[in-house]
Amino acid sequence: MGNDFHNRTDWVALVLAMFVWAGHFTLVWAASSAFPDQPEARWIAMALSLAAVLLLAALWRWRRTKTLCSVSGLGIALAAGGVAYDTLPPLLG
Q1: Tens digits of per-residue pLDDT, 4-56?
Q2: Cβ pair 22, 61 in contact under 8 A
Q3: DSSP string for residues in 24-59
Q4: CA angle, 52 as apex, 1 and 54 as ends, to 5°?
Q5: What is the distance between the alpha carbons of residues 30 and 73, in angstroms, rounded to a whole number?
Q6: Is 63 helix (H, G, I), strand (E, B) or coil?
Q7: 20 is in which domain, residue-wise?
Q8: Where are the transmembrane segments (predicted)?
Q9: pTM
Q10: In contact, 17 and 59? CB cutoff 8 Å
């Protein structure tokens, strides 16, 4: 296991990744509620998804994570999967 779970920076990266995911979900949900079944919601969802993925990539780089076998790596990977999943409903209608 190592001491990955006792490093405060790993937990900060995990929390920041979850905030990115939660913010992405909230904004995509608001856009799809404001513009139901309209192309504007799809464009907004794609722009927000791109921004969220870029934020997660910057967080990965900031932590210098080389593997998923750490708290920060797993948190960022989980958030990236959540961002991808949140993007599907506006795109599919």
Answers
A1: 555 556 788 889 999 999 999 999 999 989 998 889 989 999 999 999 999 99
A2: no
A3: HHHHHHHHHHHSTTSHHHHHHHHHHHHHHHHHHHHH
A4: 80
A5: 29
A6: helix
A7: 4-92
A8: 12-31, 43-60, 67-85
A9: 0.82
A10: yes
